[in-house]
Amino acid sequence: MPVRMVCVRCPLSCKLTVIDGGETGTEVQGHRCPRGQEYAERELVDPHRTLTTTVRTGFADRPRLPVRTTGEIPLRLFSPALRAIKSLRVERRVAPGEIVLPDVLGTGVDLIATDDLTGEGELASETVGHRLRHPELAGNDLRRPGTAAGQGEGALRAVLQF
Question: Are residues 33 and 85 in the same domain?
Answer without folding.
Answer: no
